[in-house]
Design goal:
This protein is mainly alpha-helical. It is built from 3 helices and no strands. It is extended, with a radius of gyration of 17 Å. This is 6-pyruvoyltetrahydropterin synthase.
């Protein structure tokens, strides 16, 4: 069953508000026979820290990240940015 989401397109949102959005990461590839992993989780965590968290965490995307000055900060565009 689908639930219709509210339309916030014309909402007067407080620009100082933050939203904690969960980050889901999926990795795929061949499993290394010696480690049994696609990627070492320590390496994945470090990569995520450098390429996602340091750039976007606790940021007002439209104000703090230059890329989003001219690009709408949708989930899809955040994925393209990273």
């Amino acid at each position: 069953m689908c639930t219709k989401l509210p339309d916030f397109s014309n909402a007067d949102l407080d620009s100082s508000s933050e939203a904690d959005v969960p980050l889901v990461v999926t990795v795929h590839g061949e499993i290394d026979p010696s480690s049994g992993m696609v990627i070492n989780l320590t390496d994945l965590k470090e990569y995520m820290q450098e390429t996602i968290m340091e750039l976007l965490d606790h940021k007002k995307l439209d104000q703090d990240v230059a890329y989003f000055a001219d690009v709408v900060s949708t989930t899809e565009n955040v994925a393209v940015y990273t």
